[in-house]
Structures are given as C-alpha cells and as structure tokens.
C-alpha cells in the first residue's frame, strides 16, 4: 500500500472544493489568438530591438536578416511581422546614417557610412514592397509603431521623395 504525503491530502480536498467553481473550459480546447496586421507589425517592430545597432551596418543588417528568416519559417504569412521588423531596421539605420554623417573625424563611422546608407535604402525598398503587398497606406504604416520623438514622419516624407530602387545586383538608385 502506498502512503500519500500530507501535501497530497491537502491537494485532494482543495481540488474537490474547486469543482464547479469559476469558469469552466475543456482542457482539450484549442488555444487560439487571432493576430491582426497591427499586432504583427508591432511584434516585428519590437523584435528588431533584439539587434544591437552598435554592431555597425553589416552586423545589424545580418541580425535583422536572421530574425526575418526565423519568423518567415514559422508563419504562413509573415509579411506584417517582416514589415514591422524592416520598418524598425530602416528607421534605426536612417538614424545611424545621420549620426555617422556628423562624425566627420571618426574614421570607422566614415568607412561604414556608404554601407549604412545602402542598407537603409534597401530596407526602405523592402518596407515599401511589403506595404504594397499587404495593402497599407503610408499613414497606416506610420501610425502603428513609429515614435514621433525622432521625427519619424519627416524621415518618412524625406525617403518617399528619395524614392530608392534596388537593382538585382544590390545597387541602389534614387529618383531624380
């Protein structure tokens, strides 16, 4: 014969007393959350914060690319997540370009500036393509996660005027 511990005896009456009290749900019920385009963009935006922008343009870009690939393999439609991820990446890289431009005596910053500009432009092109595929307006994209404290609306308008295009070889051209 097995001997039950005192803890087991305490647990049995507690479970018996709880029977019929509170909400009841089947333990076999599916757990479902229906994400929205907004919540997926916000989740992508937040995920980009895992990448360290002090790694420089190449290291930061590699981290973003890795996150995008990981998420893309999990979801059937990762476009909203990837939009949020790339939107944050573009915004961060655009800010970094602004910092690098001002650091005229910093050799490392000046050496990374062309790649940082190219990466920011490439990310903006990806954001615009995802925006088109999802069917969002500019105001919808800007309304979701971007912080106004860094002049995001002005940066978005500036990049819209620049209208970068990505060539098949990775080169970036701008509207004239």
Architecture overview:
The chain has seven helices and two strands, in the order αααααααββ. The chain has helices at residues 6-18, 37-48, 56-74, 79-102, 107-134, 138-143, 152-162; strands at 165-166, 172-173. The model has no long low-confidence stretch (mean pLDDT 78).
Number of strands: 2
Strand order of the largest sheet: 1-2
From the alpha-carbon coordinates, what is the Rg to the nearest angstrom?
A: 24 Å
What is the average of the pLDDT values? 78
Q: Which structural class do the helices and strands define?
A: mainly alpha
Sheet with the most strands? Answer: 2 strands, antiparallel
| Distance, first to last CA | 88 Å
Q: How many helical stretches?
A: 7
Shape verdict: elongated
Q: Give the proportion of residues in helices.
A: 55-70%
Order of helices and strands: HHHHHHHEE
Could you list the spans in which at least 5 consecutive residues all have pLDDT below 50?
A: none
Give the percentage of residues in beta strands: under 5%
């Amino acid at each position: 014969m097995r001997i039950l511990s005192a803890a087991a005896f305490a647990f049995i009456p507690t479970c018996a007393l709880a029977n019929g009290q509170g909400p009841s749900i089947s333990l076999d019920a599916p757990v479902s959350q229906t994400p929205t385009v907004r919540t997926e963009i916000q989740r992508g935006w937040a995920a980009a914060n895992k990448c360290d922008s002090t790694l420089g343009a190449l290291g930061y870009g590699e981290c973003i690319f890795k996150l995008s690939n990981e998420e893309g393999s999990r979801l059937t439609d990762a476009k909203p997540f990837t939009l949020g991820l790339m939107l944050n990446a573009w915004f961060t890289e655009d800010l970094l370009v602004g910092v690098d431009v001002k650091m005229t005596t910093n050799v490392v910053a000046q050496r990374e500036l062309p790649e940082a500009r190219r990466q920011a432009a490439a990310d903006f092109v990806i954001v615009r393509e995802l925006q088109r595929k999802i069917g969002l307006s500019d105001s919808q994209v800007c309304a979701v996660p971007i912080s106004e404290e860094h002049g995001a609306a002005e940066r978005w308008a500036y990049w819209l005027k620049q209208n970068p295009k990505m060539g098949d070889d990775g080169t970036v051209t701008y509207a004239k």
